[in-house]
């Protein structure tokens, strides 16, 4: 097995005059779950897109090593409205594995539904199933639960934890939610001033410390 699921060295990305990522390094081990925090506009999505291979304008002395089997989940499920749930899940992959994946995310029986007939949480479950059928070695998730209500979010946390324990992909989860990061991840990293400023095991991560790293003061 490869020594790492992601290895980024010297990654730089600028938009016009503004350098968003500057000579950034990040390594993720196989099976490791990393939560990426950072202030709004700090470059979290930019980093995720670069790792996903969706950004061809990254520059610098950058070296990007990412496995072939990558799946990406976004805040909106990005399901195609004209395809039924099962066809969305199996889009671009060999048919046949979608039913099992839908069962894994608790949507057995909804294969023939249209995306518009599903709730937001159910649509995110379909998006997770779509990731699962790809058997990813790396799952990149950009605020996948950001638009969900609190209760649905808790259920999705449980589901993601369960799926990760079973399939063991490496995960890079972009989130605004410090508690979500500590709860789900093995390791928490914070983007600060265009680089990884803070990098620590989730078990050592302290809520107040992380909030202050994000520039959010907490009253004692
Ligand atoms: N295509 C683009 N063109 C110009 N500027 C961009 C582009 N994409 C991102 N940026 C800028 O880069 C910076 C980082 O954006 P990014 O979306 O990565 O931040 P983020 O940390 O994910 O923010 P948020 O938490 O608010 O989603 C922002 O200032 C944004 O305006």
Characterization of this structure:
The protein contains 7 helices and 9 strands, in the order βββαββαααβαβαββα. With 220 residues, the chain is an alpha/beta fold. The protein folds into 2 domains: 1-69 and 137-220, Rossmann fold (3-Layer(aba) Sandwich), CATH 3.40.50; 76-135. Strand 1 (6-15) and strand 2 (18-28) form a beta hairpin. The chain is globular. Bound molecules: adenosine-5'-triphosphate (ATP). Adenosine-5'-triphosphate (ATP) binds next to helix 1. Keywords: ATP-binding, Cell membrane, Membrane, Nucleotide-binding, Translocase, Transport. GO terms for molecular function: ATP binding. Pfam families: ABC_tran (PF00005). Residues 6-218 form the ABC transporter domain.
Work out the number of β strands.
9
How many domains is the backbone divided into?
Answer: 2
Order of helices and strands: EEEHEEHHHEHEHEEH
Bound molecules: adenosine-5'-triphosphate
Rg on CA atoms, Å: 17 Å
Question: Which residue ranges are poorly predicted, with pLDDT under 50 across at least 5 consecutive positions?
Answer: none
Offer a concise description of the structure:
The chain has 220 residues and is of the alpha/beta class. It is built from 7 helices and 9 strands.
Task: Give a quick set of tags describing it.
220 residues; Rossmann fold; binds adenosine-5'-triphosphate; three-stranded antiparallel β-sheet; 9 strands; globular; 30% helix; alpha/beta
């Amino acid at each position: 097995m490869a020594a790492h699921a992601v290895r980024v060295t010297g990654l730089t990305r600028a938009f016009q005059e503004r350098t968003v990522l500057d000579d950034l390094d990040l390594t993720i081990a196989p099976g490791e779950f990393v939560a990426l925090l950072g202030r709004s506009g700090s470059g979290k999505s930019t980093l995720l897109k670069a790792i996903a291979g969706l950004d061809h304008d990254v520059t610098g002395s950058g070296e990007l090593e990412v496995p072939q089997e990558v799946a990406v989940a976004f805040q909106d499920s990005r399901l195609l409205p004209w395809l039924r749930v099962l066809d969305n899940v199996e889009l671009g992959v060999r048919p046949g594995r979608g039913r099992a994946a839908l069962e894994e995310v608790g949507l057995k029986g909804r294969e023939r539904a249209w995306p518009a007939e599903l709730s937001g949480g159910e649509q995110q479950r379909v998006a997770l199933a779509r990731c699962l059928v790809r058997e990813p070695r790396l799952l990149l998730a950009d605020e996948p639960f950001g638009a969900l209500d609190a209760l649905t979010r808790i259920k999705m946390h449980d589901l993601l934890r369960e799926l990760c324990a079973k399939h063991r992909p490496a995960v890079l989860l972009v989130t605004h939610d410090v508690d979500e990061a500590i709860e789900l991840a093995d390791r928490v990293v914070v983007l600060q001033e265009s680089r990884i400023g803070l990098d620590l095991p989730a078990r050592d991560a302290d809520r107040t410390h992380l909030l202050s790293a994000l520039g959010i003061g907490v009253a004692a």
